[in-house]
Amino acid sequence: MPNLLSNIVRNLFGKPATRRYPFEKREPFAGTRxxxxxxxxTCIYCGICxxxxxxxxxxxxxxPKTWTLDPYRCIVCGYCVEVCPKRCLxxxxxxxxxxxxxxxxxx
Length: 107
Known about the structure:
The chain is of the alpha+beta class.
């Protein structure tokens, strides 16, 4: 019985074992890959990243200068970041939640 009471007192007045998630967010670990980012001002739209992507998640067209990423196909491997000649692609360590629904214009 005394052991039970000491456990109760220690748990009531001690620090919590976990962090309070929405209020205290943990920093990402070193080397984690959260999501892909592009700097469109430095991109030359060469298409090397789309050719190297193993999941075929990147589509680049030169003429209208468009770059699109399908977040549902991307496996966040980082190959596109490695082969980009202008270093306009980068991996941000912070994880971003994917959208909950598809855009209306996608059929």
